[in-house]
Every structure is written in structure tokens, then in C-alpha cells.
Amino acid sequence: MARRHRPTAQLPEHLRALYDRFPFDRSLAEDPLSLVRPRAGDPRAAETAAIFASTLAVGNTTAIRGSFRELERRIGGDWTGFVERSAEPGTPAALRGFRHRWIRADQMLHLARRLRAIRASGSSLEEEFLKGSRAGGFAGGLTTLSDALRGPSVPRSPRGYAALFPSPGPPHRSACKRLTLFVRWMVRREYPDLGLWRRVDPAELRIPLDQHVYWIAYHLGLTARRSRAWPAVEEITEALRKVDPIDPIRFDFVLCHTGISGDCPKRRDLAVCGPCAVRPDCLLWAGHPEAAA
């Protein structure tokens, strides 16, 4: 492992300041979660919309939100009904031609059918997560949830579908960013998350490790790992848990959107970095005469 960059002893204080000053409403408007939140009053519909929104969370947020809206338009805005009708003959025609990056209409239809099968069995996505987490912790919960969403090998799923739901354990060792994001939305009880799963402790959440969060975490010394795999997820989460053991993932939205918005230019630029609360801790500013805020 590479030698870790050491931030200042004031990093916890600086992270809290970054959080307290953050313009949540500005960034939420650009986040796919903003399209799920209006359904929070109907937990089944919200959970369904959230698993589709998080599965589509590939690429920039504008494209993700556009694809989610297009999928929603095709199903008539009825997420619960879409799942219930997913086995009916006319449903595939409504999705024909849908595509987001490499994610296709047949994969979205298969996901709806998997949700229908899970619910018909008397289970739920929360229950599937809990089954795995009882013995294997958070990673075990993700693995069991991922297995349920992938489904059995027979009948065969559409080409590339199983790759949408990797697992944190061998052989994938994936960061599982999209599924971890979905669980954050479902579990965390503070704004902007939904807090619909009440049997999972928010303290057990793990960081959804996208490229923005990873870049900032690495440059703040929260990890020295050079790949966005599951060990980096655990290492960054543990570092954040020392700052807030009750709600360690509260910093995820802030770190992610600090990168998305350009508030972190990923280069030394005093005009942009000047107001940043964590500038004294950043590797780019280490040893620089203007490092101190």
C-alpha cells in the first residue's frame, strides 16, 4: 500500500464545517435522488423508483436524471404498477428503444421482474439485505441483496444484466457504488435521504465510492489505496466513522457534490479552493505557503 497522506489534526472540524456550509438544495436539484424523494410518502413506490435510479447512476447526473425521467415516462409514472405488470405481454413494447449508456430496456424489464419475484416470495429488498447482514455485516447484506437482484441462473437473464449487480466479496471485490448508494438512500434518516428502512442502523452504512468521493478522500488522506475497490470503501468509511460514529456517511453527499459541482477543481486553484474548509488538509496544498485557510 502507498504511503498515506496525513491531513491536519483539525480534519474532523474541517469536515464538519464543509458539511455545515454546504448548499444542499442546490446540489439535490442535480441529483437523481431529487426525482425519488417526491414518492417518499409511498414506501413501495419510492423503493422501486430508487433501485431503478441507483441502477442508472452511471455517467453525469444530467444524463442519469434524463434517463430516469424517460423510463418513468414510458411506464406512465407508475413504478409499483410497472413491477406488477412486468410479466404481461405488452410491457416490453413500452420500453423498446430505451437505453442509458450500456444499460438497455431488456435489463430494466428483467429488474422489474426480479422485484416482482422477490415480493411474490414474501420477501423484500430490506429483508434480503438483512438476511446477509446478520451473518456477514454490511458486505454480506450487499452480497445477498445483489444475489437476489441478479436472480437464478435459470431462466437466463439478459446479456450484461448480472454485471449491474456486483458484490463486495470475491471474486468481484467491487466498490458496489450504485447498490451502496441505494442502501444509503433507504437507510439514512437525515436530509436528503429517505430513511425508509428502519431495521438497518445508519451507523453500519458504507460510503458509495464514486470517482469524486474517491479523489477527494484520497487527497484528504482518508485512504492510501489506489483503486476504487471494496477495501477502499471500508478504509474511507472507517476514517469517517472516527469523525461521526453515529452517522459516518453523512459526508458522502457533500464530498460527492463538491466534486460534481466543480467546487473541488482537482487542481491547485486558490480562486476556487480559497473558501474550502478542508483546504489545509488537502494533499495538493500540503507544504504550500497558502495551505492554511
Write the layout of secondary structure elements.
Blueprint: H1 11-21, H2 24-28, H3 33-36, H4 43-55, H5 61-74, H6 79-84, H7 91-95, E1 99-100, E2 103-104, H8 105-120, H9 125-150, H10 177-187, H11 211-219, H12 230-243, H13 251-260, H14 270-273
Antiparallel strand pairs: 1-2
Helix pairs in contact: 4-10, 8-9, 11-13
> What structural class do helix, strand and pairing data support?
mainly alpha
How many helical elements? Answer: 14
In percent, how much strand structure appears in the residues? under 5%
Overall tally of structural domains:
2
Q: What spatial order of strands do you see in the largest sheet?
A: 1-2
Q: Detail the poorly predicted runs.
A: none
Helix content: 40-55%
Order of helices and strands: HHHHHHHEEHHHHHHH
Shape: globular
N- to C-terminal distance: 30 Å
Strand count, sense and barrel status of the largest sheet are: 2 strands, antiparallel
Query: How many DSSP E strands?
Result: 2
Spatial extent as radius of gyration: 20 Å
Look at the structure and give the mean pLDDT: 95
Report a brief summary of the structure.
With 293 residues, this protein is mainly alpha-helical.
Write a structural description.
By secondary structure, this protein is mainly α. The protein folds into two domains: 1-30 and 206-293, Endonuclease Iii, domain 2 (Orthogonal Bundle); 33-204. The chain is 51% helix and 1% strand. Strands 1-2 form a two-stranded antiparallel ribbon. Helix 8 (105-120) crosses helix 9 (125-150) and helix 11 crosses helix 13.
